[in-house]
Design brief:
heterodimer, A: about 200 residues, alpha+beta, Glutaredoxin, two-stranded antiparallel ribbon, about 20% strand, B: Jelly Rolls, 3 domains, 4-stranded antiparallel beta sheet, 8 helices, globular
Chain lengths: ~200, ~450
């Protein structure tokens, strides 16, 4: 009986341990994807529970005209939602972008939020982004609540609306902040393809 | 797809190479297409947002290049193919597009560097050397980070005491990343000075025409265009009559960050008096009052040539909800000749189109233009959502129509008759629009629409 009990304890504790190790592994992976360096070379970890209400990641490239045209809107969104506890960061989804070019570009466009580099496309893959400027809304725990366009300003390449009709990122954020499900959690982005390398491997 | 590819391969040079080597490669097949059609704009400092020079430049966006060329968004060129071709046409052939597609689908192989042609060279600065006179816009002009495209007219008084003859002219923006076009317009009326003064300085906005009837134009700026010298044997110099002001119309496209530009005009003079001076024909219909929801609002205008006229270039103008422009000539013998058709108007890309072969239209020819607007919610460029009444005006949310045909009278002595006729037509356009406006107001007052 005692032996059985000891066995039971070992099994329970053991499996608990194993479970714990697994969980740690998973978190470590996620966290790994979420630690990027910013344009000044400092590591940056996406904020977690207790640190924000939501995280918005916007993938950019320094030379996509559509992504660049969005700079003023990204800055506006960042200002508005900062007050509601949303952390914005813009992430260069470019494999071969030098830190100097990124830094210069971020200064020129005046981004007022953390500006990160993702040369290995870790966060890009974790979120499943394929285009710039693609936006992702993450819960503080890291769940993907929205992924897609910022708004419907571009109907197609070379066709831009004069008046925006659908504020997809704002709508997603408003829903997320009031604890409601996001009505359209995925939308299609008009922009430039993220370059996954010569083999074009997505994952 | 395969038939397309095969057709492409059959018509394009390098068929054998491709059959031997399989998929097209960057060095052999793609680089020549990009160098000849894209690099003029897509290189550092130019209007294209990224360079298309190296293998990496092209590889990382191979699919996008194919997609955008297939939709004929790039290279930017709006006129549909017609009987006349244009010297400044920017167009890929179906075969070239098929090569770009096949290359992207094959994973964008680089190929053998031995096949790579040298990258194209483009002249920098003043193409023809130091100009005889440089006119500089007095202050850098600020282009905001966002918003509609900007049309601005800079007034550059010449204050010449005598007529001068121009053999060449170059407009040189200081910031070509934002400049879509620039045209020096000649004003002998002093109107531009007054408009600028009213606006408090050396320039005025006008999202459309310059606000006066141009006395003529000088060669302007378009991305990648070269400056040409009037050939000694040819009679194409341009007279700058004394008292003329140059009004530089610039078209800027905001890019997401604030930019500035301070363009210059370089003038090259000659003592040789041009045998014939450029003349213009201006067509327009200002009776524009487009109800919301109107899918195809049409207006037309017509001008009868008082003398034989040699047509050299053509330029059309509408604003955001313009859809289509068609221009044709009805010759005295009843024949019809298409001059220009833009089936999918895009305000962002408008420029002068230069006919490859200038042609003569005889006295008595009717030149007709039809403009079509789409004021529905389906038109993404509609500045109002929901759509509203849109009227004639010079603001970016108003509409205009305009057409300018450039050329020379066949006989030099006909210039004055031509000019008088153009001015006369201008007043007709104004009168027609005023009468229509009055009618509308009367109808409104009596409760009808």
């Amino acid at each position: 009986m005692r032996r059985f009990l000891r066995l039971l304890i070992t099994v329970v504790v053991g499996s608990g341990l194993v479970w714990q190790i697994h969980a740690q592994d998973d978190q470590a992976k996620t966290r790994d994807a979420e630690v990027l360096t910013d344009v000044s070379g400092k590591p940056y970890r996406l904020p977690g529970p207790g640190e924000c209400q939501a995280v918005v990641v916007i993938f950019l490239s320094h030379d996509c005209p559509i992504a660049n045209a969005y700079a003023p809107e990204i800055k506006r969104l960042c200002q508005v939602y900062k007050q509601r506890g949303v952390v914005f960061c813009v992430v260069y989804a470019e494999r071969d972008l030098s830190r100097e070019t990124a830094k210069k570009h971020a200064q020129e466009y005046g981004y007022c939020c953390p500006v990160l580099l993702d040369p290995e496309l870790k966060l890009v893959r974790r979120v499943g982004a394929t285009k710039v400027p693609e936006a992702a809304v993450l819960s503080p725990r890291g769940d993907l609540l929205y992924r897609g366009r910022i708004d419907d300003r571009y109907v197609d390449y070379g066709q831009r609306r004069s008046v925006v009709r659908s504020q997809d990122l704002r709508d997603a954020l408003d829903a997320a902040l009031s604890g409601k499900p996001v009505a359209r959690p995925r939308t299609e982005v008009i922009g430039c393809d993220i370059d996954f390398g010569p083999t074009g491997q997505h994952r | 797809m395969w038939t397309l590819l095969m057709l492409g391969a059959m018509a394009a040079p390098g068929l054998e190479a491709r059959q031997q080597g399989g998929a097209p490669t960057f060095c052999r097949d793609v680089a020549p297409i990009l160098f000849n059609n894209c690099t003029s704009c897509h290189r550092p400092g130019e209007v294209g947002p990224f360079p298309l020079v190296t293998y990496e430049d092209a590889r990382k966006r191979a699919r996008q290049l194919a997609r955008i060329c297939e939709k004929r968004i790039m290279p930017p060129w709006k006129p549909a193919a017609g009987p006349e071709t244009f010297k400044n046409a920017r167009m890929l052939t179906n075969e070239q597009i098929a090569v770009l597609k096949a290359w992207a689908e094959a994973g964008a192989p680089k190929g053998d560097e031995a096949d790579l042609p040298p990258p194209p060279k483009f002249p920098e600065g003043w193409h023809l050397g130091e100009p005889d006179l440089i006119l500089t816009v007095p202050k850098p002009f600020v282009i905001p980070a966002e918003g509609p495209d900007i049309y601005v007219h800079f007034v550059l008084p010449l204050n010449f005491k005598e007529d001068k003859y121009v053999r060449a002219c170059q407009v040189l923006p200081s910031n070509r990343r934002v400049a879509h076009h620039g045209v020096p317009i000649l004003d002998g009326s002093g109107t531009a000075r007054r408009l600028a003064a009213k606006h408090g300085g050396d320039h005025y906005p006008n999202f459309g025409g310059p606000g006066f009837i141009p006395r003529g134009f000088l060669p302007g700026y378009a991305p990648g265009q070269l400056t040409k010298d009037a050939d000694e044997s040819d009679d194409r110099g341009i007279t700058l009559p004394k008292g003329t002001d140059i009004v530089l119309q610039m078209h800027y496209h905001p890019t997401g960050k604030e930019e500035t530009d301070q363009p210059r005009i370089g003038l090259y003079f000659t003592d040789r008096k041009p045998k014939r001076n450029p003349c213009i024909i201006a067509l327009a219909n200002n009776d524009i009052y487009i109800p919301p929801g109107e899918k195809a609002f049409r207006r037309s205008d017509a001008f009868r040539l008082p003398v034989d006229f040699e047509v050299r270039d053509i330029w059309a103008h509408m604003h955001m909800i313009g859809r289509e422009v068609r221009v044709w000539a009805e010759l005295p013998d009843g024949k019809r000749k298409e001059l220009l058709h833009i089936p999918d108007w895009d305000f962002n890309w408008q420029e002068s189109y230069f006919y490859t072969e200038p042609f003569v239209l005889p006295k008595g020819t009717w030149i007709r233009a039809e403009f079509v607007w789409d004021n529905t919610a389906d038109n993404p460029r509609n500045p109002n959502h929901p759509p509203k009444f849109i009227e004639w005006g010079e603001g970016s949310t108003d509409e205009m129509s305009g057409l300018i045909i450039g050329g020379v009278t066949v006989r030099p002595q006909d210039e004055l008759v031509m000019w008088a006729s153009v001015i006369g037509h201008y007043f007709e356009i104004e009168n027609k629009a005023n009468e229509a406006r009055k009618r509308r107001e009367q109808n409104r007052a009596s409760g009808r629409r």
